[in-house]
Fold:
Amino acid sequence: MATQQFTAKLHLRSGDAEVAGSSGTLIESLADEVSRLSPGIKIREDVSASPEGAKGVIEIGVIAATLTATRETLRILISGIDAWLARKQQCRVSIDVAGNKLEVSGVPDSDRKKLVEAFLAKVLRE
Structure:
């Protein structure tokens, strides 16, 4: 059986206009963080995605990450996002895989693990 590939769209946002003004640098640094953790994840900016920013939140950009559909690769992706967010606290990142969305920005650790596990189960149809 062939290994299934999927694309995760990473929506990058900020409530700070000054932070959002450096969109190219932010997109590049998030892509670098994810690529560094797993060279097998292919990253590209998704210029076709439409902004979906909520009131007061600026859509900075969308990155498409193509990866093998396994629990391990999704965990690597989420770990990369977490590490990046620890340094870019004014930003928010959500992951969208086939309509299944996860955002862990600002979520307490006690709830975060449950959200991640539920997301993985939906995406991987476990």
Remarks:
- The radius of gyration is 14 Å.
- The chain has one domain: 5-124.
